[in-house]
Amino acid sequence: MNDKLFLIAIGGTGMRCLEAFVHLCAAGMFDDQEIEILTLDTDQSNGNKSRVEGLVELYNKVKTNDSSNFGGRPNANTFFSAKLNLYKFFTDYSTPSRKSYKVLSQVSNISNACKQDNEELADLLLDPETVQNFELDHGYRAQTHLGSMLMYHGIIEAAINAKRGGKDVKEHEKALQKFVQLIQKNSGNARVFVFGSVFGGTGASSIPVVPIALRDSVSILSDGTSSLDLSKVKFGSTLLTDYFMFAAPTSAQKSADKVIADSNNFALNSQAAMQFYLGDPTVRNFYKRLYHIGWPASAKLDVTGMNSGKTITGGREQENPAHVVELMCASAAYDFFTEPIVEKQATYLYRNVETDDNGQLRLTGTSFINDGDKFENKLGAFFSYAHLVLSKHQGALGLPGNEGLLERFADQKIHDYDSITNEQAKELDDYLKMFAYNVVNGNLTKGWMYQVKETVPGMFIFNNDAFRTGVNEIAGIDPGDIFTDDRHNWDKPLLSSRYDKFIKGLIDANCFPAEDQHVETVKEQYLAHIYNAITMAQKYDF
Questions:
Q1: Which fold has domain 4-92+143-351?
Q2: Are strands 354-355 and 301-302 parallel, antiparallel or unpaired?
């Protein structure tokens, strides 16, 4: 991969796709890469947005505690191998003068006749009682005709403000400026991938306008002296159709919110969006690959109970669980970032997955990327590492997981990592809890990996025993016995456990960090050592 990589996550669904992507980075899927990430939403307090932004920040803490080089440098063939740079942007509708299209569109110092013409045109295109009056800070609520216009102008407005400079420039506008200027700087070899759905409002609205908005922002920020040649920038995106449902809004909610999301309309929204993207010249001419990702209607995730039966339009309460289709979207980004791109205009891609005789899914590594063994090895190694820390060393039960594992290194006379502090070890514990599971107030809280598994009707790479949920059961999880294919489970001695054999094997010379892994800090070396030991035990033949 010689191209410069950029990722844009749009809307609540885009944030959850980004969450899956970050976990793939933690598993080591993006070796030797520095990736620029922009979160883009209308809702600055969105729970999904806050969660993934916190995840990226924790990811970078895990890599290094050097404040002068936050996030460290890229590594290879190890956990947390990619360097992630995060830029947070939102279109600001938080003030009374910006809360709805009705107030946002008011123009001063114009004649009454001109004002009337503007209002009549708006009324023709946008329902004056509903679309023009709903509050925008929770997204565009499937009103894509409104959303595309406002998202474009929101990005352009931020570019104008950033160009103007001064103390009034907001941090999110500065973040957008940096991101846009990096794309312009690397325009000859930039790959830009967009995470978004086509059944809601924010993602569906934004995907068609992102290339144009970036191009025009470059022109504004440079006073017209620089341009972004969209024929050279490689754009890709997910076209994620509906995959979950929730309670239909009540009459009272509809009346109060003017326009509110209704999952009963998601399928129709998806169809309309797909028809539009098929013919839209911006999409056809500037996007190289569009990944069509869907989910059976009969297996949709019902989040009604998770939201206490309420329809959540946005805000802190919108924090939905992970789903396997989001991992499929992250895998689409991997394909886009790693495979040669020769397309001159939009190519629509999809991948079939295997089912058994009963119609149940059989998801293996090749269900997600072409190199299925690599996917299984890396994700499996990270899952085993999580069980080592959270199960065997009881990190999920509040004990110092990585501290305990480091003590076992010392027992083997390996003192290379003694300088890792308790706080640094805890950061690793915290990340693994977000990835796999934790115990809170005596109950198991499912992390990202467990949530993904729960959405799969059938087999998902790893055996069911690797996903035990009973608090009293998790201590019995064997980190070396997680694969459905027994060839990749760790060898089990006759007179001891897989774990004991693994610990004794840490002294093997092949487990120690190698030069080509590009690890520098003590934490990076420690992670590389564990990665090497687990990978050797899994016996994948590359």
A1: Rossmann fold (3.40.50)
A2: unpaired
Contact 71, 60 (CB under 8 A): yes
Q: What is the DSSP string of 376-387?
A: HHHHHHHHHHHH
Helix H or strand E encompassing 40: strand 34-41
Q: What predicted TM-score, i.e. pTM, was given to this entire model? A: 0.90
Q: How many Å apart are CA 465 and CA 473, to the nearest integer?
A: 10
Q: Decide: residue 184, CB within 10 A, 0-12 exposed, 13-18 middle, 19+ buried.
A: buried
DSSP 395-419: GGGTS-HHHHHHHHHHHTT--TTTT
Cα(191)–Cα(188) distance, rounded to whole angstroms? 9
CB 52 within 8 A of CB 9: yes
83 vs 33: CA distance, rounded Å: 6
Q: How far apart are CA 192 and CA 245, in angstroms?
A: 30
Is 539 in contact with 487 (CB distance < 8 Å)?
Answer: yes
Number of helical (H) and strand (E) elements in the chain, helices listed first: 18, 14
Task: Give the list of residues 6+ apart from residue 404 with CB closer than 8 angstroms, or none.
Answer: 393, 394, 395
CA-wise closest residue to 223 among 160, 155, 157: 160
Domain ranges of the chain: 4-92+143-351, 100-134, 372-538
Q: Rounded to whole angstroms, how far apart are CA atoms 8 and 171?
A: 18
- Dump pLDDT digits (tens) for 458-511: 999 999 999 999 999 999 999 999 999 999 999 999 889 999 999 999 999 999
Each residue of 445-477: b (16+ CB within 10 Å) or e? ebbbbbbbbbbbeebbbbeeebbbeeeeebeeb
Instruction: Return the closest-CA partner of residue 419 out of 504, 518, 525.
Output: 525
Tally of CB atoms within 10 A around 5: 22
Number of CB atoms found within 10 A of residue 113's CB: 8
Residue 304 has a pLDDT of 46
